[in-house]
Amino acid sequence: MGKTLVYSFVARGTTVLADHAEVSGNFASVAAQCLQKLPSSNNRFSYNCDGHTFNYHVHDGFTYCVVATESAGRQLPIGFIERVKEDFAKKYSGGKARNATVNSLKREYGPKLKEHMRYCDQHPEEIDKLAKVKAQVTEVKGVMMQNIEKVLISFTATISN
Q1: How many other C-beta atoms can be found within 10 angstroms of the C-beta atom of residue 75?
Q2: pLDDT tens digits, one per residue of 68-115
Q3: From its phi and psi, is residue 102 left (phi > 0), alpha (psi between -120 and 50) or beta?
Q4: 117: left (phi > 0), else alpha (psi -120 to 50), else beta?
Q5: Residue numbers of the chain with a pLDDT score lower than 50
Q6: Cβ pair 125, 34 in contact under 8 A
């Protein structure tokens, strides 16, 4: 199987802290242009351009991005981003990334991005399953939160009567 994940980065705001490209192309400049336009709220975004998807996840002030061929589908990029997000948070939760400058983490975290990209490219079935399970867990958590909210509203209404 060829490379389906071709470029990735981790940014704080609009500052790219580390990136890695598996193939040559203008992916970095296109991804950086999109980064400038993303809302800063926690959310996922995906754009299609020239046979590639540009996938972003903004979370707690950091943006995780992977550019994939359209043939990669949706789950593989999402699974990759989840892996990187968890790994990056573990490694840099102490605050080093909060003050890092442009590309200052490239030397130490760029190889980690490469490792994650290659792993995901080589194990797409595993990443797909994991991404689907995480999506289901997130959905169940949302339903549970709504149910708890309804119970609390009902309970509050009962007490005030």
Answers
A1: 18
A2: 999 888 889 999 999 999 999 999 977 889 889 999 999 999 999 999
A3: beta
A4: alpha
A5: 1
A6: no
Distance CA 58, CA 12 (A): 9
Residue type, 37: K
pTM: 0.77
- Residue 79 sits at the vertex; the CA angle it makes with 34 and 35, to the nearest 5 degrees, is 10
DSSP assignment of the chain: ----EEEEEEEETTEEEEEEESS-SSHHHHHHHHHHHS-SSSEEEEEEETTEEEEEEEETTEEEEEEEEGGGTTHHHHHHHHHHHHHHHHHHTTTGGGS--TTTTHHHHHHHHHHHHHHHHH-HHHHHHHHHHHHHHHHHHHHHHHHHHHHHHHHHHHHH-
Closest to 71 (Cα-Cα) out of 130, 1, 134: 1
Cα–Cα distance for residue pair 60/157, rounded to 1 Å: 35
Rg (CA), the chain: 18
